[in-house]
Design a protein that fits this description.
Chains A, B: GO terms for molecular function: transaminase activity. The structure is a homodimer of 388-residue chains. Chain A is of the alpha/beta class. Chain A folds into 2 domains: 16-43 and 279-387, Aspartate Aminotransferase, domain 1; 44-278, Type I PLP-dependent aspartate aminotransferase-like (Major domain) (Aspartate Aminotransferase, domain 2). The first copy, chain A, has 14 helices and 13 strands. The first copy, chain A, has helices at residues 17-20, 44-55, 58-64, 74-84, 97-108, 123-129, 148-156, 180-193, 216-219, 247-260, 266-273, 276-304, 331-341, 373-387, and strands at residues 30-32, 91-94, 114-119, 135-142, 145-146, 163-166, 196-200, 224-229, 241-244, 309-310, 319-324, 343-347, 363-367. Chain A has an 8-stranded mixed β-sheet, with helices on both faces. In chain A, strands 1-12-13-11-10 form a 5-stranded mixed β-sheet. The interface between A and B is large, with 80 and 81 residues.
């Protein structure tokens, strides 16, 4: 590219596996592809009311059209801080989760630094990380999350990292949550070795079973950056989220915001903060909806493909991470047959962080959140065709 | 700052001069400080209608709450492209003008590169530039804009730059516009020496006198990045703007967006694109309002402070850049007296790009856009007190 010399030079083209593999699903294929919320779970009526209330209030309308503080509106920060159990001064409102991750990377990761990442990993974080570095240390994700002992061993052996990245709740793609004990151990490592934790938590609100493993341990450390968003609850289209930052990182992140985009849309914030009173209800209904969909998907797999996968019923989030039971099965061939049968999912290899880590390739990631129960049942019937 | 190693490390705290100088204006001071639009010029009623239309259309509402294409919505890009006279594929929707500037810097300026900048310069660009470099080559701004001959001389003498930054229409702070002939000459230099033009054009729509000097010359070059925003017409609060990019830079900028914030809010874009039919009317009314305010300010200065300044009636934009006629006057003492008298403006020294360039310090920047005619007259009466 002529004259391209800046930070953009080293960035890869981020594409989903389905794009990268040049597979063209038939138009009527059922797509179990993305961790996006169900349209039915998004509170359009409440948003319409909040929006009308804003524009009918002359003083509020004028304020929403002007500049607002870089860290976010006081009302929105206070609401988020109360939910997170931290001082509002530690909240920075962002343009969504990816924005929070990239702000964190730009703040604490220097060019060429090494960053420990989940393996399998959310590919979007790999893209975000490219703004600073391509050097990663893949850390396996086990049944109870990020393998803290593995990282401890690497650090004891002399490896050094600037940061460690994990999705602690309803992991993307691996579905699991990080246990409370391992959260504490991970924070301990970060404090001992002086690296930052990049805690990516977009699915946290969507727990519909099991026990919350807690985030206070992150908030109590000056080494953890906790990133969340309204994407899974109010919709990706807002591009609205937040970071819970250690106090000493608030000012550096704000200095970045001053450059990058000044602040999150005042209009967006004015509408979102007017949804505070409805938010618990929105989340409650969303959890019920995703609980049903997860159960339908798991039930259909047991019914139509008994024994084909090792699966665990999700306790939250939007993903089922299913391991092929037959070690001799060819995942690539299965994917091609599934596409031909009219169902598309993300093959696990797309999420592998390390070339040596073969476990991911034995998995299929099914995203069930934005498919109806009928679509999920039909998707599994089509998948059963692909297995024959 | 503990462990701060990333790009945020080198960023200064961006503060207005009034903050930096620790001057505390009295609460009832008239503030001629910022290039922000008048509340009366912002189309609240049209926005309320567009917003209601969006949320009452179920399909549109659901779409607005989901992810949308990184370059921007097709409808919005088409509308902007038609206004700019370029192919829609060259438009990238941004989160406002500063976002566009920083995306441009991250795309074409490497760490340590030198960038030519207006002198006096919009301080926000200096802050944006810090994400890549602190090395600048100040170029005087003359009565017909950026001194292209000065830059040509420096380049001929061996200086090399990655980019050159200027505000071509209604310069901030220097009020002037770049002549058509110098636009062409500047593009010629960029093409000859292989640097990029960062053309920052937020005031372009606000012309109320004089002849448009044209932007086609920028759009016809693969060396010009043309940055604009809806900040001065629909309000800063939206954080919505656009870039007109050379074709070869569209993909690199999108790759950055994929990381930095994915895309501009789908909700914002859905509302803004519904204002297309009203936009000409909004701009027409805004121009009339700012024409009146500029005339009131200039008239009051002639009436109450005859001969105190060298001034030219603005042809557009939001600033009057007034030069002190008395070469022995002390601008700092004048500023202190003005604050005490209850009027605040930006002293010119705040905009100086080079330490050796003393002209800026002989100026006062008056921002008249968001002050009523009565406030402007009273502000000048108070300024006259400060001159006594």
């Amino acid at each position: 590219m002529t004259g391209l010399t800046g930070l953009a030079r080293g960035l890869s083209a981020p594409n989903g596996f389905v794009v990268a593999s040049q597979v063209a699903p038939p138009p009527d294929a059922i797509r179990l592809l993305s961790g996006i919320p169900a349209p039915e779970a998004l509170p359009v009526d409440a948003i319409a009311r909040a929006s009308a209330a804003l524009w009918q209030d002359p003083a509020a309308a004028v304020a929403a059209l002007q500049y607002s503080p870089a860290p976010g509106s006081a009302t929105l920060r206070n609401w988020i801080a109360e939910r997170e159990g931290v001082d509002p001064g530690r909240i920075v409102v962002t343009n969504g989760g990816m924005h929070g991750l990239t702000l964190a990377v730009l703040t604490v990761v220097e060019r060429g630094d090494t960053v420990a990442v989940d393996d399998p990993v959310f590919p979007g974080f790999r893209w975000a990380l490219e703004v600073s570095t391509n050097r990663i240390l893949p850390v396996p994700v086990l049944a109870d999350g990020f393998d803290v002992d593995h990282l401890a061993g690497r650090l004891a052996a002399g490896d050094r990292i600037a940061a460690a990245y994990t999705v602690p709740d309803f992991h993307n793609p691996a579905q699991v949550s990080l246990s409370a004990a391992k959260r504490a151990a991970l924070v301990g490592l970060a404090e001992r070795y002086g690296f930052y934790l990049l805690v990516d938590d977009p699915y946290r609100e969507l727990r519909f079973a099991g026990a919350d493993q807690g985030v206070a341990v992150f908030h109590d450390s000056d080494r953890a950056i906790h990133v969340n968003s309204f994407t899974k609850t109010l919709g990706p289209g807002w591009r609205a989220g937040w970071m819970v930052l250690p106090e000493h990182l608030v000012d550096p992140v704000i200095r970045l915001r001053n450059r990058l985009d000044v602040h999150t849309s005042s209009v967006t914030q004015a509408i979102v903060e007017r949804l505070a009173g409805e938010f618990d209800g929105v989340v409650h209904r969303a959890r019920a909806l995703y609980r049903e969909r997860a159960a339908v998907l798991v039930g259909a797999l047991h019914e139509h493909l008994p024994g084909a996968f090792e699966i665990h019923t999700p306790e939250g989030g939007l993903f089922l991470w299913a391991r092929l039971a037959d070690e001799s099965a060819d995942p690539a061939a299965l994917f091609r047959r599934a596409v031909a049968a009219g169902v598309v999912y993300q093959p696990g290899e797309y999420f592998a962080a390390g070339p040596e880590q073969q476990s991911a390739a034995r998995h299929l990631r099914f995203a069930y959140g934005d498919r109806t129960p009928d679509e999920l049942r039909e998707a599994v019937r089509r998948l059963a065709v692909a297995f024959r």
